[in-house]
Amino acid sequence: MPEKDYQLGENYQYPLIIKKLLDTPLIYSPDQEIVYRDRMRYTYKTMGERINRLATGLEALGVSQGDTIAVFDYDSHRYLECYFAIPMMGAVLQTVNWRLSADQISYTLNHAEAKIIMIHADFLPILESIREKLTSVRTVILLSEDGAKPDTKLEIHAEYEQILASASASYNFPDMDENTKATTFYTTGTTGLPKGVFFSHRQLVLHTLSAAVALGSYHTVGRFRSDDVYMPITPMFHVHAWGIPYIATLLGVKQVYPGQYEPAMLLKLIRDENVTFSHCVPTILQMLLGSPDVKDTDLSNWKVVIGGARLPKGLAKAAKDLGIDIYTGYGMSETCPIISLGLPKLEMMDWEEDKKLDIIVKTGLPIPLAEIQVVDTNEKPLPCDGNSAGEVVLRSPWLTQNYFKEEEKTKELWINGWLHTGDVGNVDAEGYLQITDRIKDVIKTGGEWVSSLDLENMMSQHEAILESAAIGVPDEKWGERPMMLVVIRPEFNDKVTAEDLKVFMKKFVDQGQLPKYGVPDRYEFVNEVPKTSVGKINKKQIREDYN
Predict the structure, then answer these.
(1) What is the end-to-end Cα distance of the chain in Å, rounded?
(2) 230 close to 256: Cβ distance less than 8 angstroms
(3) I need a labelling partner for 386 at 20 to 30 A (CA). Which of 50, 250, 266, 461 fits?
(4) Domain ranges for the chain
(5) How far apart are alpha carbons 406 and 476 in whole angstroms?
(6) Average pLDDT over residues 296-303
(7) Catalytic annotation, pick one of 178, 334, 456, 467
(8) Of 75, 167, 61, 177, which Cα lies nearest the Cα of 115?
């Protein structure tokens, strides 16, 4: 669709669309670098040309506005180009979670009505297993590291770099309605099929602007500014890597994309490229801190936002001891995702470190244009006293408005104009949210609630504990009793008993942080805690294994 030919004197109705985010860095930082592992390095100016080439090539393959293009890739420069080129054409970018089961992946592709699949060679076996089930896919584009032809039975229509090489470096991206659908992906719950979440250009632009203000404008810890070096360690298929690649591009920062997550490579990139800002789930940070290569890496300039699961105080302290500037971020697939950040206020910056640590592990303050309430079962707001617990509900201009083709599930998501998270939490007098559990994960013992997240946070402070997970197990007398899975640090193997851990947890009773009935009776020593496809603790699997 050509841009409108505006007449002299006619106002320009400025749309909030993704292509507007790209204008600024191409003016401010055209020579800044974008790096992919140790394989690719180019400038923003070149990225702009590659985005144009990708759009030209996709158009030649018949892509038109409204078409859905599914991408299977590791975190790469290619993915970043897709973040822009596909929605800027008016098409829809579907970011595919390749860690899902083959049946779930085929369901999401059919449900989203994907027309084109762009896929890394490593994931071709997944596509081979489901290709005959796909009802709308007409074209497969290969994402290759070295241009080699893969050994596959699939019909490959083109290779990514070949498309770019033969396409024009200029493309006239249209203005469009800012409410045009830009991206979609699928979130998995504990039951049922994956749910389709999608976001418009307007929502993504507003999220980018608000999160950029929250991350960089206040005098607090871990600020993300134009002189930072950014590397995501959250999959780009998961909620746009928390939307931060859009922020990084707007700021024109040096960006480093690590491809497949390997501790040695991640730490090498942090060292060699001077990475200063990242984000990840706690398990990834734990993996890096446990790597033998960490001793050779200076992490004192590294700022890390932890989301996807609660940041245990013990892990936060371990990171701080290595010089990492760490804090919490909170959001959901349905929230685009950033809603709050665990940032100390100005007057808290001079607090002693342990007291400040209690702030940075909190779920956090709402970022600009986000509203947070905690409500009871009658939807009545609860007081901000740090104790009154209820369901966390949200408002902001970037929350998903509905689940794709899921009217009934949308009705459960939105009630009385508030998005219902399914999280239990409280808000204190300073405005800080603290998530205490998922509604379905709260442990109900003797008619009282015990937070599994609180138990995990307390257990993390034991010097021998690498990781833990708490669930409720059936009990004839009390209904449920808390049980904990624990992973012991190698140097403490055979030196810690279940009774030692119980004694440690009782200390929190003496300190008034835990009721007596909240101390777990059962401790299971395991080599690893089950995880979901996005690295969160898989409470559903644990309950199935131990109930």
Answers:
(1) 58
(2) yes
(3) 461
(4) 40-197, 442-546
(5) 39
(6) 96
(7) 334
(8) 61
List, in sequence order, every beta strand (DSSP E) within 170-264.
181-187, 195-200, 229-230, 254-257
pLDDT at 189 over 90: no
> How far is Cα 50 from Cα 361, in angstroms, rounded to an integer?
40
Write out the two tokens for 543.
Answer: 């309950």
Nearest to 314 by CA among 499, 465, 436: 465
- Catalytic one of 444, 448, 495, 506: 444
Catalytic residue flag (residue 379): no
For domain 40-197, the question of CATH label 1.20.140.10 is answered with no
442-546: CATH topology is GMP Synthetase; Chain A, domain 3 (3.30.300)
pLDDT tens by residue, 317-364: 999 999 999 999 999 999 999 999 999 999 999 999 999 999 999 999
Does 449 qualify as catalytic in the annotation?
yes
Stretch 16-34: mean pLDDT? 98
Name the active-site residue from 46, 313, 414, 449.
449
Number of Cβ atoms within 10 Å of the Cβ of 355: 10
Strand 33-36 relative to strand 254-257: parallel, antiparallel, unpaired?
A: parallel
Read off the amino acid at residue 434.
Q
DSSP state of 132: G
How does the average pLDDT of the chain come out, rounded?
A: 94
- CA 176 to CA 16: how far, in whole Å? 9
E strand or H helix at 423: strand 418-427
Average pLDDT score over residue span 425-447? 90
Digit-coded pLDDT (tens) for 71-80 = 999 999 999 9
Residue 1 in this model has a pLDDT that exceeds 70 = no
* Alpha-carbon distances of 298 from 128, 162, 260, 270, 322, rounded to whole Å: 43, 39, 22, 9, 8
Q: Which helix (H) or strand (E) holds 522?
A: strand 522-525
539 as an active site residue: the answer is no
pTM for this prediction: 0.86
Structure tokens at 447: 């008619």
Rounded Cα distance, 540 and 29, in Å: 46
Q: How many whole angstroms separate alpha carbon 39 and alpha carbon 224?
A: 26
Nearest to 302 by CA among 338, 327, 283, 282: 327
What number of CA atoms fall less than 13 Å from residue 412's CA on the CB side?
6
Closest to 455 measured CA to CA, from 434, 467, 469? 469
Phi first, then psi: what are they for 381, rounded to 5°? -60, 140
From residue 56, give the alpha-carbon distance in Å to each of 63, 88, 307.
10, 12, 36
Rounded to whole angstroms, the Cα distance separating 362 from 341 reads 8
CA–CA–CA angle 384, 386, 387 (5° rounding): 105
Q: Catalytic one among 187, 320, 351, 478?
A: 187
Residues linked to residue 185 through DSSP beta bridges, in sequence order? 197
Rounded Cα distance between 169 and 524, Å, is: 59
Show the tokens assigned to 43: 């400038």
Give catalytic status of residue 444 as yes or no: yes
529: alpha, beta or left, given left = phi > 0 and alpha = psi -120 to 50? Answer: beta
CB atoms within 10 A of CB 382: 17
